[in-house]
Amino acid sequence: MNAIVTAVSSNPRHGFSKRNQIFIRLLAGLGVEGDAHAGETVKHRSRVAKDPNQPNLRQVHLMHAELFDELETRGFVVTAGDMGENITTRGIDLLSLPAGTRLLLGESAVVEVTGLRNPCVQIDRFQKGLMKAVLAKDGQGKLIRKSGIMGIVLQGGDVRAGDTIRIELPPGPHRPLEVV
Fold this sequence. Notes:
The protein is of the alpha+beta class.
């Protein structure tokens, strides 16, 4: 199966969910045009409170639609944009990508993967028990965060549902994703 974009979403205000759009425009060094999290410096409220001048490594939030399938089997109803992602994907194991991977989206956009999204309490406010459902532990007891990945925009462009996603891995050795 080819990796594709299944939905794109944005929200001009800080909030948990984002509305699906026909397309989103990615702006190099900033993120999603018109989205509350766009900017060169961090825009997530908890991070702004710590240091408003730190670089924004969370310009674009990507989530795999396969997570929605998994959650549905556990009784949750989650659709594209509900958990605040900008780009919903299918056919790519986002969580296994190494840091520095470049995702070529549509005709011209390029997003560099910076790390994992750390789920927050807002997830349980959206649907009770959802936080626990997006966390797991591996065989060694290490926490697995399933709620998507974050990235920065290296090259702008329009992205829409149906666009293909091409993957460029960074030179090795590869670094696993950590929370950003």
